[in-house]
Amino acid sequence: MRFLFRLLNDIKLAGNARQKYVFFHKTVKHILKYLILFSGVIFSLLFFYKEQLVFAFATIILTVILYGILAFGTTKTQTDTENNEQNHIL
């Protein structure tokens, strides 16, 4: 609960609307990454315990794919695009 209050306070102090959006987007993405990783480990251990190996390995593969998409996917914000365009002009 304390984490959420700190997060909301950081969002209020972030600055203009674009900075708040980018900060919130990165924070939600960070939380989702670890939620997917944690739930994937829990479900795969549960399936291993129940001796359903096909579901356990499928859960591991799906967790790795989803985590990879969130961790290494492109997340270009509008400010990144504007900075790249300004560097190209210079």
Radius of gyration: 19 Å
Terminal Cα span = 46 Å
**Mean pLDDT across all amino acids:** 76
Tell me roughly what share of residues is in helical segments. Answer: over 70%
Discrete helix count: 4
Q: Biggest sheet: strands, sense, closure?
A: none
Unreliable residue stretches: none
| Domain tally | 1
Number of strands: 0
H and E string: HHHH
The general outline is: elongated
Question: In percent, how much strand structure appears in the residues?
Answer: under 5%
Helix-strand category: mainly alpha
Concise description?
With 90 residues, this protein is an all-alpha fold. It has 4 helices and no strands. The chain has one domain.
Could you walk me through the main structural features you see in this protein, from its secondary elements to its overall organization?
- The protein is mainly α.
- The protein has one domain.
- Helices cover 84% and strands 0% of the residues.
- It contains 4 helices and no strands.
- α2 runs antiparallel to α3 (53-72).
- The model has no long low-confidence stretch (mean pLDDT 76).
